[in-house]
Amino acid sequence: MPNSVFWFRRDLRLTDNPALLAAVNAAGGDGVQAVFVLDPVPFRVSGGTRTSHLVRSLAALDRALGGNLLIRHGKPEDEIPRLAVERGADEVHVAADYGPYGAARDQRVEKALATHGVTLHRTGSPYAVAPGRIRKPDGTPYRVFTPFSRAWREHGWRAPVASPSNVNWLGPAGSDDLPDVPDLPGVELPDAGEDAALARLTAFLDDGLRDYATQRNRPDHDGTSRLSVHLKYGELHPRTILAELAKHRGEGADTFRNEICWREFYADVVFHRPESIWESLDHRVGSIHTDSGKAADERFEAWAAGRTGYPIVDAGMRQLRSIGWMHNRVRMITASFLVKDLHLPWQRGAQHFLDHLVDGDYASNNHGWQWVAGTGTDAAPYIRVFNPVTQGKKFDPEGGYVRRWVPELADVTGAALHEPWTLQEQPDGYPEPIVDHAAERKETLRRFEAVRGA
Ligand SMILES: Cc1cc2nc3c(=O)[nH]c(=O)nc-3n(C[C@H](O)[C@H](O)[C@H](O)COP(=O)(O)OP(=O)(O)OC[C@H]3O[C@@H](n4cnc5c(N)ncnc54)[C@H](O)[C@@H]3O)c2cc1C
To answer: Per-residue pLDDT for 111 more than 80?
Structure first.
């Protein structure tokens, strides 16, 4: 049989990788060429944290492949056909990419391969259930999470597959070098690669799952899985997680399964409405008046730097800069602050998150922002404005999270930690609030009323 090519993209793992098994089976004992193409387009727009993770993950994958991962820099529609011809392969195997950029890229590659008589085979996807598959009985897509999640659970998913064995990997002759891991002073990122992902999953199942339902909203506790970055790069497949969850009973496992479903839901929304990555789904709410100009820019900068004077907001924004990750509850609080206290467009905040998040993902991030802004699916009503003081008191009641990330407040104790302006003396070096939350809340409601009847 002729050789085959396996093109790794967002599936940087060997276990539970059906597309990789398909490539191995297609070669039937002949050679399999493993390749990753550093496509300049997504590579340019990835923040430094994601570039760092990707490069480290590729190095781990190369080790797992015994040094046989070939790297190519360039456009996939040039590199993949060239490689297939060089290696005498007549099939190229991938996991399907359902994102707008990836799907269009794959069509270009498929067309270019066809001119050489080579076929592109898509097997599986980065999701338990491929985007577009779950539909209402009338065939239209779900627009609301809860019925989608019910149908998703009823649909079910395949069991994980084993890793391929005795593969005749073709070597990396002609490989380009991996780029250097970017230097990000002061930024601490998680370990990358499949082993790190599986170790994280095991640790979470052993120590975190049981209390997940009650702990997941507490940014001061290490109560969530931290698997988002591993899912983003496919170092772990959600199906592997779901199979493990099936061995556990209880609220923790149910809640966690539901969270995995949010990722699947947003991918499904983007599949049907690709423009919704940057456009508000609800145009009416999306047309609400937002601020611009110098004062707005200064507020944005204060928000991004974690210097708004609202401790829970500042803690979140500093956590983001320090470790490329932010707790989900605090993502909601900081996003709400940008949109509803500073009256800035959600897209501006979403872009900032994508510049820094190591798990930055267009579907989950931009729809997370739309959810908060009230412009997306399951829109929290626009009038629901998160109060950063009450959110801080409720979800960081002892203040451990704020003190961890805002050293200027390290010596403040008690409820005043979340409203330091009530202290006799403003803590040294910590800013006064840049806006008055109560006044901005009213302003948000006023602006909402102005578009309500539009
Ligand atoms: C404004 C905003 C921006 C966000 N940006 C991203 C992003 O760029 N990338 C990203 O993966 N998630 C994003 N999320 C969702 C969520 O915050 C993260 O998935 C979660 O914090 C990751 O930490 P974890 O793995 O410990 O989560 P866990 O609580 O352990 O959840 C397990 C997994 O479920 C999925 N998940 C959980 N909550 C959500 C959710 N609300 N939406 C989609 N998937 C979810 C993730 O894959 C996560 O890894 C965003 C949420 C908001 C409100």
So the answer is: yes
Comparing CA positions, the residue from 356, 367, 272 lying closest to residue 316 is 356
- Which atom from ligand 1 is nearest to the alpha carbon of 208? 30
∠ at Cα 110 (232, 58), nearest 5°? 35
For residue 360 and ligand 1, the question of a CB distance below 6 A is answered with yes
CB 326 within 8 A of CB 319: yes
| H-helix segments, 141-293 | 145-155, 194-207, 212-215, 228-232, 238-245, 251-272, 283-286
Average model confidence (pLDDT) for the chain? Answer: 95
Neighbours of 390 (CB within 10 A): 13
Confidence of residue 380 (pLDDT cuts 50, 70, 90): low
* Ligand 1 touching residue 234 (CB < 6 A): no
**DSSP label of 338:** I
Mean pLDDT value across residues 133-153: 96
Pocket test for ligand 1, best of 149, 235, 259, 358 (most atoms within 8 A of CB): 259
pLDDT tens digits along 290-340? 999 999 999 999 999 999 999 999 999 999 999 999 999 999 999 999 999
Q: Is the CB of 405 under 6 A from ligand 1?
A: no
Separation between Cα atoms, residue 72 and residue 76, nearest integer Å: 9
Q: What is the model's pTM?
A: 0.97
Q: How far is 447 from 49, CA to CA, in rounded Å? A: 36
For residue 454, the model assigns a pLDDT of 60
What is the tens place of the pLDDT at every residue in 14-64?
Answer: 999 999 999 999 999 899 999 999 988 777 777 799 999 999 999 999 999
CA of residue 95 to ligand 1 center, whole Å: 22
Q: Which domains does the chain have, with CATH numbers?
A: 3-125 (3.40.50.620), 127-158+194-272 (1.25.40.80), 283-452 (1.10.579.10)
Cβ atoms 349, 339 nearer than 8 A: yes
Binding site membership of 262 for ligand 1 (Cβ less than 6 Å): yes
Q: Please identify, by atom number, the ligand 1 atom nearest to the C-alpha of residue 225.
A: 30
**What is the best residue among 50, 228, 375 to mutate for testing ligand 1's pocket, by most ligand atoms within 8 Å of CB?**
228
Report the pLDDT value the prediction gives residue 14, as an integer from 0 to 100.
97
